[in-house]
Amino acid sequence: MSIATESTAISALPRTVLELTVRNHPGVMSHVCGLFSRRAYNVEGILCMAFGDGSLSHIWLLVNEDARLDQMIKQTEKLHDVRTVRRRPATHEVFTQLEAFFRE
Amino acid sequence: MPTMTGAELIVRMLERQGIRIIAGIPGGANLPLYDAVGQSETLRHVLARHEQGAGFIAQGMARATGRPAVFLATSGPGATNALTALADAKLDSVPVVCITGQVPRAMIGTDAFQEVDTYGMSIPLTKHNFLVRSAAHLLEIIPEAFRIAVSGRPGPVLVDVPKDVQCEAVSFERWPEPAAADSPPDFAAAAVERAAGLINGAERPVLYLGGGVVHAGAAALAVQLAEKASIPTTMTLMGLGTMPVDHPLSLGMLGMHAARSTNFALEECDLLIAAAARFDDRATGKVAAFCPQATIVHIDIDHSELGKIKAAHTGLVGDVGKVLEALLPRIEDNPREEWLARIGELRRAFPFEMPGAGDVRTPYGLIAEAARHLDDTAIIATDVGQHQMWVAQAYPLRRPRQWLTSGGLGTMGFGLPAAIGASLACPGRRVVCFSGDGSLLMNVQELVTAVEENVNVKIIVMDNRSLGLVHQQQDLFYGHRIFASDYRVATDFCAVARGFGMRSADLGTARDPAGLLAEALAAPGPCLIHAPIDVNQKVYPMVPPGAANRDMLASEPMPA
């Protein structure tokens, strides 16, 4: 797992942003990240924040669109703490606005 | 307003859920829970001798009945020992709920005595898991654990309960309702039409039934579909029993140790109807060469299975029973004489050979002789290895839930405790566990559990003094270099049984082994039946690992 450090422009594979709505509790990041790490599916960027009354969080994952992405999305949807998974374009502002924080 | 401790709350909710038997082992971190279990008037506790054994006892109960089963373990080593049984349940989609003790909340993360990250470790091998943060949360979590275990594709759920949560008092207004399975997802009528059109239009279809047909209670519907449209039917290891093996349309098991005619039929089929099967590599062989001419209809309740291994032309996400119900009225009667004649030809050209079938001192002979003394009400459990494949090939399995085997994880040590669990859940049935000497030793301590519970379980140990399937692969694919797969010291299994207080019968020294087998199977209570077999007996046919199913080895290769 790596933090987003490179801009989408220099990536070899097209990228996509997955926007997850999840139940907010201490184990949920492990469930989501474990799903990706044990399949050796690199997450290029990750952000998580609670919203509303704090019972739910959004997790944004910046991932490469490799051939396994559909299967990854289906597996993510199977997690019981995950309410919804939405696929967003890689230009989603949640990551583009953050780029300023990730300069060397 | 009821007030009680977390431990009492768990026990009451298990009772309300209909749980009557639980397996487990107490330890420091689950003693409050055990104290509450001990005071229950309805729960019967079965003391396993290892937490993995407890997990497989629960699995045996769940697999034999289709209802969720529960087992208990303490923190630390208790939890790590439980993990293999949970992983096994995940891969074979078995509804079990494991409740582990954990160190008190304030000590979590301090490397406390018998503390491990049970929650973290169990994430990848459960369907879902919980770390309970307060006793009040149990009111939601326990029913939720059961709901998840039994809904959709079943699976294991772990609930980790810190010791102080077990002791914490909680007051509440109302009991939560016991959990029931969610209703299965709706599926599109258009997809059913498409599937029916493909089946009606196919010339050489094969129906491929997986373990999900057993879970869904859909075996009778699957057989109806096969009969209506005269569709030859193959079953995965997990699907065995869904169509009686002696049904004229049954092709038996497919894949690595299938009859050659079965794999050749799949090679020729133009439509594959995969019903709640997941295209496991042991079934498909080299995937690119699996059913190369076939259009695929794939029915599964787990949407992630569609397209995971093989793209389906028509995918149906739904309960396989409901889908078959919708499909059946749209299926045209079709005698399919040409295709069935071709299947007959394949069977005649490549007959399934069972060398030694008439001799009780050989694997096939032993299985046939045991089957002669058992009827379809008996439950057949196995361990993992050569004996498992021989039984899968040769035992006349005729009903769903007759057959309990570790398919996906292939866990040696599964058989004995699973057989105990099946017998506890179905005390009226005879349970026979076929095992090997390697497998039995992996959970041999549960022999004493079988004695203590006086279950009607017969353990037939095919003893070749080796890890037979490893031995076979080394002999076939590793230049005959037999290494670390032969036991230099022979275990005296009858003496081991005696040590645990179990009767035994040694077919190896008997003058009339068939007679002794009959006698041992007929006597009530547990019994170990020792059956020495030849270490050079191999499971044939065999698809070499990584090869296409068409490239099976039929029998011993000719010397070069």
Structure in words:
The complex is a heterodimer of chains A (104) and B (560). Chain A has 104 residues and is α+β, with helices and mostly antiparallel strands. Helix content of chain A is 23%, strand content 34%. Chain A has helices spanning 28-37, 69-78, 93-96, and strands spanning 15-23, 43-51, 56-64, 82-89. Chain A has a 4-stranded antiparallel sheet with strand order 2-3-1-4, covered by helices on one side. In chain A, strand 2 and strand 3 (56-64) form a beta hairpin. The radius of gyration of chain A is 13 Å and the shape is globular. Residues 1-10 of chain A have low confidence and may be disordered. With 560 residues, chain B is an alpha/beta fold. Helices cover 37% and strands 16% of the residues of chain B. In chain B, the strands form 4 sheets. Chain B has a 6-stranded parallel sheet, with helices on both faces. A 6-stranded parallel sheet of chain B has the order 11-10-9-12-13-14, with helices on both faces. Chain B has a 6-stranded parallel sheet with strand order 16-15-17-18-20-19, with helices on both faces. In chain B, helix 4 links the parallel strand 4 (69-73) and strand 5 (96-102). Classes of the chains: A alpha+beta (104), B alpha/beta (560). The A-B interface holds A 26-27, 30-31, 34, 38, 70-71, 74-75, 77-80 and B 119-120, 123-124, 127-129, 131, 148, 302-304, 307-308.
